[in-house]
Amino acid sequence: MIELDRRAFLKSSAMAAAAAMILPSLGSAAEGEAPPLGDGLTWAKAPCRFCGTGCGVLLGAKDGKIVAMQADKLATVNNGLCCVKGYHVGLILYGQDRLTTPQKRVDGKLVPISWDEAITIIRDRITANPGRFAFYGSGQQTIPEGYASNKFVKGGLGHNHIDPNARLCMASAAAGFNATYGVDEPAGCYDDLDHCTVLIDWGNNPAEMHPVLFSRVMDRRLRGDKVLYIDLTTRRTRSSEQADHVAFFKPNTDLAIANGIAHLLVKAGFLDKPWVEKYFRLRQRVAEYAPDPTKRDVYDAEAIHPKNLAGKDITREAYIKNLEFYTPEKVEEISGVPATLIRLIAEKMADPNERVLSWWCMGPNQHTRGTAMNSLLHSIHHLSGQWGKPGASAFSLTGQPSACGTAREVGTFSHLLPGHLSVLNEHYRELTEELWHLPKGRISDKIGFHTVKMWDEFCTEGGAVDTIWVQVTNPGQTLPNQNKLFLAKKDRPGKFLIVSDVYPTATTALADLVLPSAMYVEKDGMYGNAERKQQQWFKMVDPPGQARPDAWQILAVSKQMFDAGFPGMKDKDGEWLFAKALKNPDGSVPPVWDFAHYYDVNVDERLFEEYRPFTKVKHKDLAPYSAYVKAHGLRWPVIETKPGVWEETLWRFVEGKDPYVKPGTGMQFYHSNTKDDKAFIWWHPYEAAPEEPDAEFPFWLCTGRVLEHWHSGTMTMRVPPLRRSMPHAYIEIHPDDAAAMNVASGDQVTVESRRGSLTLPAWLKGRGQPPRGSVFVPFFDERLQINLVTKEYHDPFSKQPDFKKCAVRVRKA
Amino acid sequence: MSISSMVIDVADNVDGAELLDVLRADARFTLGPANGNRHAIVLDTPSVLDDTTAFDWLRDHAGVRLVTLVRAYIDDEALPAGVAAEYL
Question: Looking at the predicted complex, does its ipTM rise above 0.90?
C-alpha cells in the first residue's frame, strides 16, 4: 500500500513537471527550483557531469543514493531539458566495478594498499626527481581540483609539466581566440541560439554532441521561427537530417571555404565598411612555418613561438590579392562544396537583416591548422559585420564540462598560470608568486610539456618524464597513436604511472598505482562551461569504499612532501604551500590532509577564493563562492553592481553589454594583441593535410563521438540503457565502398593505418554516413580502440592533435 | 520501478491522432494536459531498461515529431546488483 501511494505520488509529480513544460502557468520558478516536495528525496542542483554544454540538473537522493533526476528549469543553459545522457547521469555512480581502494602493481597484478602507503609512494616518487614528474589533468577536474593541481606543480615543483586532456579537444579554439582577440573564450553565449536567423555548422554534429543546444534551435523552428540551417560537414549526421543545406567538404579544406566566403565579402566591398577600419586589423602569420606539412618537426621554432601567435600586419592590397585565388568555383574544386552554397553563405553574411551564427566543436579544433581555422571563422564574422549583435557570432563549443572553467581559466595548460596568464610573462609570474606567497623566481618561465610531448617523453626510453600522475581522464584510450604514446610504456620498466579514477580503464590497465576517486556529487565541485558560466554543487552522497576526492589526494601528497622537508612545498614564510589558502579566520590551518577532517571546512570555497583574484587580470571576474551557491550559474565577467548583487555578462566587448567596454566606443577589444582595442581579420591559406589518402591507404579516417556515450565511455558504458542503446563501436562505410569490398552491415572489417589496425563491425546505413572514400569510427569503446590507428599530427601553435583525418585502408576481415 | 515524464510533440496529421489513441490504450502511459500538439505524458515501467525500451519505441513511432524527457525517477530496484555487470 505504501509503495502504491508512493508510486502514485511520483507519477503525479512527474506529470506536473511535464505539464509545467508546456503550460507555463502551471509551473512557477519556485516550483522549478524545489520540485517534488514530499517525495521523500533530498533534491539539489548540479551541472550535468558530461559535456561542455553545462546543463543544470536537479538530483534526488534517498538513503545515501542518487535515485532521481530532472532538468533544472532555472538553468538558462537548458531551460528544463536534458539529453539522454543527462537523464541517466545519476547512474554513472553505480557501476558494479567502482574502484574502492588504493592499489599498487606487484608482480604484474594490482593489489590493495592503504591510503597512507599510496600517498607515501607518490611522495617518494616525486621527491626523488621532481623535474621528471608530470601531471596529466582534465577538463573534467573541478575548478578547485584543477587549481590545486596547478599550484602543486607550478608553485610546488617549480616547473610547468602539467597539461590537461583539454589539449586534445579545444586547445586550437583557445589559440584562435588568443590570436584574434588577445584573450581566450567566446564573446557570445548560448542566447545567440535564440536570436540567430542563419545557423552554420562547421564540421560539427550538435544533434548528437550538444543535443540540448541543438534542440534549442530546432524548437524555434518547430514554433515557426525561420532559421536557415546549413551543415558543412565531412559526413552525413543526425544534424544533417535537419539542415536546409548539407554540403560535404573534403577533409582539411574548411580553410578554403572560409577564404571563399571572405573572397566574396571583399568583392562586395566589405573591406570598406566602417566597422572594419574602426575595430579590426588585417593580419597574417609571421612566417611560412611548414613548407612540407608532412614533416612536423621542421617548423621554424621562432615562427611558432607563442609570442608570434598574434602574427603581423598584412596590407589591404596583399589581403585582397591572397583572396583572389579563392573564387567560389575554385573553392568548389578544392573542397567539393558547391559554389552556389558558398555564394549563399556569403550573401546571408552580407545581409544586415540576418543574424548569422557559426558554431563548431572538434572539426576545426582537432586540425593541423586548427588555430588558423578558428581564426578564420572569427574573421569572416568580423568582415561581414555578423558580430557583436545577439545571434550574430562565432561560437566555439567545448566537449568537457570544465574545459573552459578549469583547463583554460584555471590555466592547467603547460603554458598558463591561473586566470589564463602566460608563464612567459614576467609580470604574471611575479603576480602569481605574490598571490601564492612564493619566493621570487619559483614560477618557471619555461613552457612545460604539452600532452603529446609529455607522453612521448614518458614512453620513450631515456625520455625526460619518468612519472605521470593522471587525474579524471583516460589517456590509455584517448591519446592518438596509442602504440607510440601509451602502450610503449609496457616496455619501459623505469616509468611509473599513477592514475586517480573511478572505474578500471585502459589507463589503469598499465598503472603502477591506482587511486580510487570520489566522483561528481560524491564531492563538492564547480565547473565552467563553454559560455563562460561557472556552476557550483555540494556533495550529496558518500563515495563507495575508500574512494576520496581528487583535490584531497593532491593536498595529502603536498602535505607529506612538506612534512618531509621538500622545499617547493613551502611558501616564502616557510608555511605549507596550501596553508594560507585554507586557513581559518583564527589563523589555524584545518588538517584537511587527514581525510577524517577534509570536510571540516569547505575546501572548495577556500581554494576558489584564493583563485578569484587571478580572474580579474584578464577581465574574467568571478563572483564570490557564495554567489554561485545561490545562483544556477553565472557567466563571467561577473560584476558586483550593488553590495551583494552579482550580475553576469552575456556578450563581451560590446558597449552596453560588457561592463568593461568604455561608453562611446561601440565595441572595444580591450585585450587587443596590438594594444589598440582592435581585434583581427586573419589571412591564412588552405594547406593540404599532413597525411592524405594515397594508393596504399586510400581512405580518409575520421573519429568522433556518439549521442549515447561520453568520450571514452568510462561512465556511460556502465549505464545499462546507454550501453544497450549503443553497445559497441563500429565503422561507418559508404554503401558503394562497402559493396566494392563485398561488405554488408555487421561484417567484420579491418581498418589499418601506418600506425596500427583495428577490426570491428561495419554499419552501412546507420545514423551517420561518410561520403565515398571516407570512413568514421567512434572512440568510446575501450575494447575497440580506434586510437591505435590515428596519428599525433598536431597544430603548430595549439599542439592539438588531429583526430579527424588520417589515411587508412579498409578490408573485409 | 522507473517513472519518467516527458513532453511529446505530435504530428498534426492522422499519424499523430492514431498515436494518441495508441498511448491511451497502453497501460504504461498516462496522458496529461496538452497545449496544441504538445502533450505531457508519464511512463511507468518496472525497470529502467523497460523505460528505455518504451522511450525508444515512442521516439521512433509514427506521428511523433519530438520527445523531450522532463523527469526520471529511478528507484533502488532499478539497478539491482549485477545489472551493470551483465552488460560488461
Answer: no
